[in-house]
Amino acid sequence: MKIYRELNLLEDKKVIKKMNIAALILMAICYGVLLLPPFNQNIFQSSPFPVELGAIVISFLAIIVIHEGIHGIFFKIFNLKGKVKFGFKNGMAYATSPGTMYAKWEFFIISCAPFVILTAVLLIIMDNWPYTWLRLLIAAHGGACAGDFYWCYLLITTPKNLLVEDTEVGLTFHKVG
C-alpha cells in the first residue's frame, strides 16, 4: 500500500487554531438553530447562575467522556482486534485506534456517531426537561465536534480507493492497489 496523505490534527498548530475557530462558529450556529422552531416550543426554565454554571461545566465534562467513549465503541464495532486509546492533548480530548485500518465509510460512521447519538439524546432530554443551560450544552457539544466534521469532510473529498489508518495524532490515507 502506498500513502496517499498523512494528517496531523493534534500537533499541527495551524490546524488546531482553525479547528478552534471552526468550533466557535459551529457552536454559534448550533445555538442559533436551537432558538428556532421546533426547538423553542417549551418555556425554558432558568436556575440561579451558579447552579447553571455548575450544571453546564459538569455536564460538558461528562459529554466529552461519553463522546470519546462512543468513538471507542465504534472503533471496536468495526475492528474487534484494534486497540483503543484515549487521551487529551493541546486542549483536545481524543479516542484513537492507532495502526488500525478502516474503510472510508467505517471511519465516517466512527467520526460522526457521537454527534448524531448525543445530539439526539440531548434534544430528547431538552424537550422533556427544558432548562436554558441544556441549549448551551448542545451547542457547545456541536462546536466541539469540529474535528469530527473535518474528518468527515476529508473522507468525502478523497478518492474512493483509500483505506484510513487511525494514528495517535491524526489519519493516514492509504491507496489500495
UniProtKB/TrEMBL annotation:
Superkingdom of origin organism: Bacteria
Q: Which UniProt keywords apply?
A: Membrane, Transmembrane, Transmembrane helix
Residue ranges crossing the lipid bilayer per the database entry: 21-39, 51-75, 107-126, 132-156
Source organism? Enterococcus saigonensis
List where this protein forms a coiled coil: none
> Upper taxonomic classification of the species?
Bacteria, Bacillati, Bacillota, Bacilli, Lactobacillales
Q: What is this protein called?
A: Transcriptional regulator
